[in-house]
């Protein structure tokens, strides 16, 4: 261990410093936040976990504090351990600004170290490993978390570890599988991000297929080790797949938010996209050119890795007919868009390009020229990313706080300038979530009306309906006490009421101190809890119990 540290500490320190360099714009602007397309969604999840920790109310299934206190499934099937980790950090720092800094730094550092490890498994020189790590930290899948809070970026930070497994399986003919390594990495990626785990499995299947064909002497032993790793990984991730299976057996729920025209959401190879210019365009293109030019100089296994990288990048750029495939194979919808494939392509082509740089049949002078280009593009990348970072942070000075209104509901009663900034700067960490929520149908009960709206090309109607029934109806007051959501309201006349809380099979109700039977509650519009009540003042205590 001491030898490893002695040999690599300079490169590790450089990766750490590089992570801080990217964050300099935010470090120099205290209190400034970036809330991209998914920011409200994920920070709401983290706030719910924070409140569970603060009040010792550990409810792993439904959200009692976040998302308008509507008691819906979110964290239980969306990286629950990371949500609790982020909630724990928020509990300690008591600041959304500090939380964002820590999370951004952690994602960048994880991306750099993961890529460094992958390239080390590929037996590249340590200095070349460093260049690959720095370039990957600037790639759009990682930066997508910093600029847009897209959780794909968190998964992308750890995907190179899976790349290391694939490279070992393809290139190493004597020890293609290390069981402990495979268990640890696959457990980490599944606990981190389910979609990234799906991509990881696809990559491992492709790597295993190559190993079976090209390494016949190790077939049986390799299969046995992979089988053992798979069983142990399943045991260690039962909280993810077990909860998912349980929920889908017990309740018919809507999958993550649908997107019409998925084919339009591609990896952009231009200078106009804030996530890709110029790093993804120049660095990734450079590695592709390097690999393609000198591919015959590298070993067959590395060639295969490079071809896979090119294939994934082409698919992410639009060659994958995802709209057609979703119609034929609905399960493909889990990918959502073609650009979700990009992290795999970028990390594989980075390895293949750098391998070609090391092994390519070229003069030392030409090799130095290629290396200068790599360094130059990394330098350009850091300037471009920090410049874009500054631009996005400056949006925080706008009266509305630069909160994107993509399916985000803001309380119409809060319309004064800079109300959003004041809410996020408040010591009361609940304040932002009393005025805004992410209006998405993910994991709501699959009612006939919700399913019909969900399938529509125009998703605005279902967003408006969720707002109407859950978020903008001010006739109901909510509070959390004694590990229950309490809803109070005044019923103007006897009849049906649609309570702004989600009705699942495990949801329990106590109406005016009297337990409500399961046959007395129906699933109302967009999953609300529907029951009959008399005229007057009422209180419902809502909890959840596994059946």
TrEMBL record:
<feature type="transmembrane region" description="Helical">
    <location>
        <begin position="183"/>
        <end position="210"/>
    </location>
</feature>
<feature type="transmembrane region" description="Helical">
    <location>
        <begin position="304"/>
        <end position="322"/>
    </location>
</feature>
<keyword id="KW-1133">Transmembrane helix</keyword>
<protein>
    <recommendedName>
        <fullName>Cell division protein</fullName>
    </recommendedName>
</protein>
<feature type="transmembrane region" description="Helical">
    <location>
        <begin position="12"/>
        <end position="28"/>
    </location>
</feature>
<feature type="transmembrane region" description="Helical">
    <location>
        <begin position="154"/>
        <end position="171"/>
    </location>
</feature>
<keyword id="KW-0812">Transmembrane</keyword>
<feature type="transmembrane region" description="Helical">
    <location>
        <begin position="128"/>
        <end position="147"/>
    </location>
</feature>
<keyword id="KW-0472">Membrane</keyword>
<feature type="transmembrane region" description="Helical">
    <location>
        <begin position="73"/>
        <end position="93"/>
    </location>
</feature>
<feature type="transmembrane region" description="Helical">
    <location>
        <begin position="275"/>
        <end position="292"/>
    </location>
</feature>
<feature type="transmembrane region" description="Helical">
    <location>
        <begin position="102"/>
        <end position="122"/>
    </location>
</feature>
<feature type="transmembrane region" description="Helical">
    <location>
        <begin position="334"/>
        <end position="354"/>
    </location>
</feature>
<feature type="transmembrane region" description="Helical">
    <location>
        <begin position="366"/>
        <end position="385"/>
    </location>
</feature>
<feature type="transmembrane region" description="Helical">
    <location>
        <begin position="222"/>
        <end position="247"/>
    </location>
</feature>
